[in-house]
Each structure stands twice: as C-alpha cells, then as structure tokens.
Design a protein that fits this description.
single chain, Immunoglobulin-like, 2 domains, elongated
Length: about 300
Amino acid sequence: MKVKILLLLFIASIVDSCVEDPFEDIISDDRQFLSFNMPGQVGPAMIKSIGDNEGTIEVFLNVSNIDLSSIVPTFDVSEYAQVSPQSGKAQDFSSNNIGYQVISESGKIRNWTIKITPYESAIDGAWNVDKILYDWHIGLNQTWGYGVFGEYDEENMTYNPEQYQPEVFSNDFGNVAFEEDNTIEFMTTTINEDGNAEGTFSYKAGSDNTFASFILNPDHTGASRDYSARFRKIHRGDGVWEFNQGTRVLTLWDKNKNGAKTEGVLSVDADGSISIAYDTWINEYSFDHFEAESHIQSAISMFYYFKKG
C-alpha cells in the first residue's frame, strides 16, 4: 500500500512539473508610484499618471522647521520596477522641481515630478461663533417634520426643498444662545505619522461669561432634562485636536487624548469662514410633546459656524 501511495505522489509531481505557468513569460510594464511620504507631510500624496511617460506627485507639506534642501522621502513603486533616486535618499526639494524616474521590468520609463505645496491650516487662529444651526426630523426616512422648509404648498401638499434652511438652534433651545458669543482658538503643533495635523484649542465663553448647559427646564413633564451629552460637542476650556485632511474629520479631545472625544466634519466657506457639522441623531422621539421640544429630541445634525476673530 505504501508503495502505491509513493508511486501516485511521484506521478503527481511529474504532472505538476509539466504544467506551464501562464504568467511565466509576461514582463511587466508597470512603472507607478504606489505611495510617497516625507517628514512634515499632511495627508496622502496625490499621485497622478500623465499619458504614457509622465506623472506628478503633489505633497502638502508643513514647511515650518523643515529644511527643504535635505528631505528624506520614502516610497513604494510597482513590483519589479526600478527607481532613481532610491527611497530613503536625501533630496533637495527647495527648487520644487525634483524628478524621479521609474523603469518597469520591460524597460519602459515614466518620469515623475514632485510638487511641494506648503500646507496652510484652515483652522489656525482665533474665531468667533457666528451662529449655531441644526436639522431636526421626526424620524429617519420620513417625509415630514424636517427643519425649516418655508411655506407649505397646499396644491402639491408638500414643502419646496429649495426653500429649506437649517433651524437656528437657539430659537427652539433658548440656552444655546449663551454659546453664540463664544470664541475658540486653534493652533497647529505637529503633523503626526498618519499625515494628520494636530494641535491645541481653547474654547472660551463670550461677554456673558456663560456656556450653554443644554439643559431644558422644564421639559414636557415638568422636569429638568439634560441634553449636554448629546449637544456638548465642543469641550469647554482647553483641549487638543487632530484633523484628517482626507476625510475632513476634526476630532476634539477635552484636555488631552485621554479626555472625552467628539468628531465633526469641517468645511471651509468661500470667504474663509469655517463650520463644523456634528451628527446628533438618537431615535427617541415620542408623540407626547410638540413644537420646540420635539425638534430638540429629534435633532439629526448640529452646525457650528465660525468667523475670524
């Protein structure tokens, strides 16, 4: 029996050795950059092939405290391809016209140009709270009770979506008004290993010396209801932050990265103003109260708008 098994294994090995590898004679033309990183880089490099022989790599770089004349980039290129200069070799990027040449296994060449764009933080500096808006909704996937639609169209039995505006939060939640004169200051301190900007912030009360408590008193039952866990998105006082350039997510921590954390999506307006949008949806709506309190309880999104101080 053992002899038969050994014979079968021997025959199988012969048959296997006779099967041709369909990719054996294929020679790769690939000559791409797969990644590109350098100290001080913000976010991923934007790698773009142009035609058959050229390509560009744009890198956003925090140029403060960096010697552009001697930067050591690291990168990956296509399998089997050769690159010159090699990864890990210092280069002078002060001219902003550095070239790399990637040669494929087949010998084809693609010339790459590296473009350095100085990173300018969209949030650094002092800001004043301009307004705080929010969206409310009776329920997800419902077609009624959503924010402010303007006048109701009796003929079509609907609102005109083009007239939609987010609600001014303090119209429904009075103590949010204490937040509307606050100030915040952001400062970038570093670019981390993931290419995300990090820094510190300080959120201060305005002339009324008061922050919103997000406490509704009384609620529809006559009791005091605290919504601060849901709506206190910007921590009072000092904290730290991280901004992901790709996803536009701004993460805030109270005091330090061991503190409470919130995440919002940052947008920059044409005039340079910024806004941060926060998800506030909790499916807890009930039909035992109406108007302002029902709007608060069915809030979907909250928006902080800031103008330069």
